Inverse folding.
């Protein structure tokens, strides 16, 4: 049995500046058999030239800065990394690579020279291997794939809430900005490996990514993790079904019911003086409300389009903007169960025009769920034995 097939999987996210594996593979091949001190001296020299916030240093062109800023052995090592990686590994930006290489023992020092470990040799071998799988699990990349496999298409914000909960449970990371950066860098890694694709700001899992995810889940040797994974998957699939059911119920409401659902949503979100306008004199506006924007009170008008057959076009936005002054409103929102045409999305942020917020069906469902409108939140608790507690050695005086 391969020694990697028996490792016990426990996610513990720890690597910042998460790199692409393609750069790790290049770097490992290049520094293997290289004198350790040569690489460290080069890195320390480059790092010492980092500049200040007032006097920044541009590192984007290695062809230029290597010859201008480095000399002797430092220049030789930096140029070797740059050119032998086919100009894909910038020697200045290898800090994340070093964190991962060191954190997962991919290379070791032997008689003053770098030497690939068994893990390192496996890592640079097959495109998918046991070491990468282990790292992917521990560093949360499998969690990202699992989330995308359930939502199909989503923005980074759609992944963030669950990723934040997962990260805080499986790491010592607490800062929101750091958690967001960890997610962004892991998405970049998965895109580079073609497990995820990105179109604009929307991410989706590829067939290759789905296949890899299923393989990892099926070969995970830890039965507790497998059961927990299945439990979480079942819950997420159930929630997805409920989202679709909620959207179905919304589509079957009358215009009057739909407008009052939006009223309830706005009240739950903290709006004041929320009113549904008279159908005979609404001037294209269905709901009005007052929101607090910092220290400023802003009146807002909302147009509700319960249309599910076609996307909202720009004329609807122009008409709503033309109605703002009639209600002494500063901004407007259009809510629909369908979506918005590209022209409408572009017009929402038109320079010099009153701001308009566009909420499509998917975003509306998310807002309703977040604010408990039309749904009842259920909480189920489950427990996992804390193996670390039983494995810790007793402190002795």
């Amino acid at each position: 049995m391969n020694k990697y097939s028996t490792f016990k999987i426990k996610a513990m996210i720890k690597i910042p500046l998460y790199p692409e594996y393609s750069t790790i593979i290049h770097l490992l091949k290049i520094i293997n058999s290289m004198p350790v001190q040569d690489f460290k001296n080069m890195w320390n020299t480059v790092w010492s030239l980092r500049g200040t916030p007032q006097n920044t240093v541009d590192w984007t062109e290695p062809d230029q800065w290597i010859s201008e800023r480095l000399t002797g052995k430092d220049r030789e090592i930096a140029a070797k990394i740059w050119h032998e990686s086919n100009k894909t590994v910038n020697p200045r930006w290898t800090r994340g690579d070093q964190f991962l290489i060191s954190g997962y023992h991919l290379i070791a020092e032997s008689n003053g020279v770098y030497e690939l470990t068994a893990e390192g040799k496996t890592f640079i071998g097959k495109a998918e291997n046991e070491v990468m799988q282990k790292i992917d699990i521990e560093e949360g990349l499998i969690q990202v794939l699992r989330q995308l496999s359930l939502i199909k298409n989503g923005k980074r914000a759609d992944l963030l809430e669950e990723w934040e909960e997962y990260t805080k449970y499986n790491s010592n990371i607490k800062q929101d900005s750091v958690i967001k950066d960890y997610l962004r860098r892991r998405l970049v890694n998965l895109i580079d490996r073609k497990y995820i694709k990105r179109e604009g700001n929307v991410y989706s899992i590829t067939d290759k990514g789905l296949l890899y995810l299923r393989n990892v889940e099926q070969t995970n040797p830890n039965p507790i993790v497998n059961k927990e994974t299945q439990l979480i998957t079942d819950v997420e699939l159930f929630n997805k079904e409920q989202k679709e059911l909620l959207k179905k119920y919304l589509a079957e409401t009358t215009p009057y019911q739909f407008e009052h659902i939006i009223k309830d949503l706005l009240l739950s979100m903290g709006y004041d003086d929320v009113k549904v306008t008279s159908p005979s004199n609404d001037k294209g506006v269905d709901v009005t409300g007052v929101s607090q924007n910092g220290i400023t009170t802003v009146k807002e008008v909302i147009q509700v389009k319960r249309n599910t057959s076609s996307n909202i076009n720009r004329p609807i936005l122009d008409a709503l903007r033309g109605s703002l002054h009639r209600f002494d409103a500063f901004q407007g929102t259009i809510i629909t169960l369908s979506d918005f045409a590209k022209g409408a999305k572009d017009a929402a942020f038109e320079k010099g025009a009153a701001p308009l917020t566009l909420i499509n069906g998917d975003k509306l469902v998310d807002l309703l769920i977040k604010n408990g409108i039309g749904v009842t939140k259920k909480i189920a608790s489950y427990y996992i034995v804390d193996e670390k507690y039983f494995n810790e050695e007793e402190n002795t005086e």
